[in-house]
Design a protein that fits this description.
116 residues; 51% helix; three-stranded mixed sheet
Length: 116
């Protein structure tokens, strides 16, 4: 699952417009099985597919915690019902959704762009 997800993220990065691609390449993407106990204690649901943590692009310089995207592979795989094509599609959609948060978009903005 990790190799598939990593390949999908890399492929998506290459499709982004150059200025956005350069910025997105600076943003670490990590892969976890599911949200850990600390994240769950902070209110993150166990079945969450992805998460953006840290400051968004506009506030990055003023906050000491570096931004990152976390994709929860076990949850994505379950959501895809173990179908590789659906898994790849959902990795791509979840990555773009979380990247949108990094760029300062809120949930309404993401819904408007069909990234919900």
């Amino acid at each position: 699952m990790c190799a598939l997800a990593s390949a999908e993220v890399e492929a998506m990065l290459m499709k982004l417009p150059k200025p956005l691609c350069e910025q997105a390449h600076k943003l670490p993407v990590t892969f976890e099985r599911q949200p850990n106990a600390d994240l769950q204690a902070d209110g993150i649901e166990i079945d969450t597919l992805g998460l953006f943590v840290g400051p968004d692009f506009a506030d990055e310089e003023s906050v000491p915690m570096p931004p990152q995207i976390i994709l929860f592979l076990e949850n994505l795989w379950g959501f895809a019902e173990t179908d590789e094509k659906i898994f790849r599609d959902e990795v791509r959609m979840t990555f773009l959704h979380e990247l949108g948060h990094y760029l300062g978009l809120d949930e309404d903005d993401l819904i408007e762009r069909e990234l919900d």
